[in-house]
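re the bet — no i am not wrong, look at it urself. input seq straight from the record:
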Amino acid sequence: MVGESGSGKTTLGRSILRLAAPKSGEIWYQQQDLMQLSASQLQAIRKDLQIIFQDPYASLNPRITIGNAIIEPMKFHKLGGGKEKVVHLLEMVGLSADHFERFPHEFSGGQRQRICIARALALNPKFIVCDECVSSLDVSVQAQILNLLKDLQEQLKLSYLFISHDLSVMRFMSDRLMVMQQGKIVEEGETNSIFENPKTDYTKRLLEAIPNQKAIGKQ
């Protein structure tokens, strides 16, 4: 999902996960309208639906180690695992067992985002909202995180709702593209088709604003 700042992308992503409370509409996931679920029913399904936030430091508790930050959601949902599973998750995202006892401030921005990805994977989700999850990172680090997300998607058969204002990132990450303007979807379709033949003036303006291609994705 792409659109300029303030277009409603993040609000929609959080509404899908019921982190924001929409006033109307329907949110369908596996033949269930999430808007109609009770609190207990919603809690049971939350482990399938996860989010990676824009600011990795703000989404981590600075007072607990990253190992405990990853274990916490597993304990809440009464899933097994413990330290052995956390170490496996850390290694999956390019970190190591030695990082288990460290605190968030001891890591770089890219490493912290890897930690947040590991935490999102801890519940074995099927669907992850990636909310501007590389926009706060340097371009070279962005490429590393995007490649990691693509590899994990293929390995774990994940579905992403990838939210960004950066069309060069979206072209690399997305099979289908939704363009949002002022809270409404104004264009939707296969990513390559929209890049090659945009239908709306708004999408055309977004595409015209793309700077020279940056070092995004596999080289």
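see?? The chain has a mean pLDDT of 91. told u. also The radius of gyration is 18 Å. so pay up
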